[in-house]
Amino acid sequence: MPKALVTGITGQDGSYLAELLLAKGYQVHGMIRKASTFNTERIEHIYQDPHDPAARLFLHYGDLANAEQLTNLIYNVRPDEIYHLGALSHVKVSFDIPEYTGDVTGLGTTRILDAVRRSGVKARFYQASSSEMFGSAPPPQSETTTFQPRSPYAIAKVYSYWMAVNYRQAYGVFATNGILFNHESPRRGETFVTRKVTRAVARIRAGMQKKVFLGNLESKRDWGYAPEYVEAMWSMLQRDAADDFVLGTGESHSVRELVEEAFGYAGLDWHDHVEIDQGYFRKFVRPNEIFFLLNFSDAGQLAGDLIEDRR
Ligand code: NAP
Ligand code: GDD
């Protein structure tokens, strides 16, 4: 029976992937964080009592910030495949806690890769890389596009990407990067824009709230469907050799289109319910644009003042 270790098993992708692996006959080991509230809602339907001799899903406490636990887990489980999906995955939040993002989303990957190397376990490794790494590189982006990350999250992911490549080249670890564009589902975290909008539409329709506050309606995303994307993750680890792959739909839509579609579907006019809150704009959207113009004029003014002084 093949064995898989999944970090981030309580997340959107982790829960779909665990379902898929169980259906394929794997024994699945998931790492979960200790929280004061239940964080296993997405995997409750596949939970199995570990006392049951037929159980194939096992959960272990651990944290990506803790190398010792990761090393023990890999050494004890000796997985055939590791799907590293755990991360602080919210781009906006990564601006608020950049150091933590670097530790968990960046260094967490190195901790796993190095545990694989040192343990000698011949596990195939999947790194959950992201289209966010392309940042300001002009679309359409592909495997050959140079990364131009624009958030602490994206920068941590670029570091992880290169660590996976490095462990592949330096130590022969079967380390594959899946660079995935956005993918959504009913299990998407409720602070990401698709669930935030659809949840708000349902609550507004039910009379439970009147407004929803959103950020940049003009930004565009290539949105796919999460259950299909986890199948691709599995396929990437079944290949003869490790490599780097980009996965998207090739179609992109604006947040405004999403809002129009979702409110329209419920028979609501979004203009009556959506308000813009600048706080939800990404840092690189606002200060970078304004900063550049301010700097330019400041620099011009400063140069003029200096010339005046010298005269
Ligand atoms: P998600 O729903 O936010 O799930 C993240 C998972 O990571 C959760 O299980 C979370 O545990 C866990 N986690 C966070 N911090 C941790 C820590 N310090 N130690 C251990 N576990 C920790 O993310 P997702 O949408 O499923 O995405 C899966 C992966 O793919 C992420 O790495 C994400 O960055 C990447 N990715 C996602 C997309 C997308 O569109 N969904 C696209 C490209 C790449 P808790 O449940 O306890 O919070
Ligand atoms: N979250 C959020 N909340 N986003 C908003 C809002 C809002 O109120 N209003 C507008 N947006 C815009 C964001 O500015 C962004 O351009 C777009 O909606 C999508 O935002 P998110 O759903 O938060 O996703 P993301 O694209 O930033 O990041 C997701 O996809 C990445 C892959 O490209 C995450 O899943 C990342 O982990 C993943 O790597």
Largest sheet strand order:
3-2-1-4-5-6-11
Q: Cα-atom Rg, whole angstroms?
A: 22 Å
Number of helices: 9
Question: What number of structural domains do the residues give?
Answer: 2
CATH fold description of the largest domain: Rossmann fold
Distance between the termini: 83 Å
Would you tell me the overall average pLDDT?
91
Write down the CATH class of the largest domain: Alpha Beta
| Low-pLDDT sequence parts | 285-311
Gross CATH architecture of the largest domain: 3-Layer(aba) Sandwich
Order of helices and strands: EHEEHEHHEHEEHEEEHEEHEH
The major β-sheet equals: 7 strands, parallel
Bound molecules: NADP nicotinamide-adenine-dinucleotide phosphate, guanosine-5'-diphosphate-alpha-D-mannose
**Percentage of residues in helical conformation:** 40-55%
Q: What's the overall geometry?
A: globular
Which structural class matches the secondary elements?
Answer: alpha/beta
Please give a handful of descriptors for the protein shown.
single chain; alpha/beta; Rossmann fold; UDP-galactose 4-epimerase, domain 1; 9 helices; 42% helix; globular; disordered C terminus; binds NADP nicotinamide-adenine-dinucleotide phosphate; binds guanosine-5'-diphosphate-alpha-D-mannose
